[in-house]
Model the fold of this input.
Amino acid sequence: MKCDLLIVNATLLPEPGRGELQDNGYLAITGSKISDLGPMAKLAGNVSGRQIIDVQGNLVMPGLVNTHAHGAMTLFRGLADDLELMSWLNEHIFPAEAAFVEPEMVYWCSKLAAAEMILAGITTVADGYFHEDAAARAFAEAGIRAVAAQGVIDFPAPGVPDPVENIKAAAEFIEKWQGANPLITPGVFCHSPYTCGPQTLARAKELCRAKGAPFFIHVAETGQEVAQLEKEHGLTPIAFLHDLGLLDRDTVCVHGVWLTDADLALLEKSGAGVASCPESNMKLAAGLAPIGRMRAANIPVGLGTDGCASNNDLDLLQEMGMCAKLHKMAAGDATVLPGRVMLAMATAGGARVLGMGEKVGALRPGMDADCIVVDLARPNLTPFYNQETLVYAGRGSDVVTSIINGKVVMAKRELLTFDLGETMTQVRRISRRVKAAV
Done:
């Protein structure tokens, strides 16, 4: 067998949440694709790999899929903690964005986010922000797979001082990046139903349909949002989106905390997915998304970290454990959202939400070669009886190698695609301006 990259002596987990651990296995990568995998005995010495990585029994699994983040908001990590959502947004985050969000800031702070995610085993991220062109450049250079969505809002925004131009700016972004880089999928991120009017939402979705691009929106995040939409339109946020014709398989509803049974029925019928961000929802006291009910209705659900201003990290492994335990406590039932479900949500489930279920989220021949190596010799992962251990004891720092699109982008905890030291120096420089202003 000939291949470009051969991983040997691995504990394989090809389909987290569904399959079982496979001891003493190998994974072959040719170009950007997985070409073969199986037990070491199958190789029988007949192998030729341009590069061979002996992982010495460590875990090899699909890379994690982060279905919602605002990478550039690493700049605002810790800037405004312990506040409820509307105060946090209107009194702190929106003013900080107006003052400091510019292409250079978005580039460096998104690159810092890419570093944090790659080091934590995240190989795909759905990102939404302003000046998203700079974010897409940062992600492409870092080598992380990204669904990058240009932010749209109905008041002056960074890069789009005239709201009349918001859809035009999104269209130009999609035009520039569609097909330009195999790692970057451009889309549109409308902030929310309370910051984007019906005409803007409809035009944004029309653009996405015309371009075959994904559409993202924060929706049903807080009880206050629900009350506002019902007062103004007589509809729940999800019903409002439905009436505008926005819900379909290419729409990702972010948060989805306050959902009625009727909302769930609309989501199920439309095929729209949900990106749940439990740690952000906890920190902002937004509530608990009904993940169990969504899954029972076969609504695609993935996990997201949200931005560093409301989480405050980009560690999806720890997000899994927190989400599972939070739902168990709330339900008073220890069997709710078992570890395997969380692993599936963070890999194949997230890929399904982003419309990438045939490309990433599992290790199968023909799929894009996005995988990670987890060090099972860590004290917190010893002994390693089953995959659930990864959910309840694992953390991002246990990931020692990340491979994206067939390229090793991180090995032995060292980033190989860019200079992390330079990136951190640049972010610290920008943060000094923020600190001086606040």
About this structure: Residues 420-437 form the longest helix (18 residues). The chain has two domains: 2-62+369-415, 64-353.
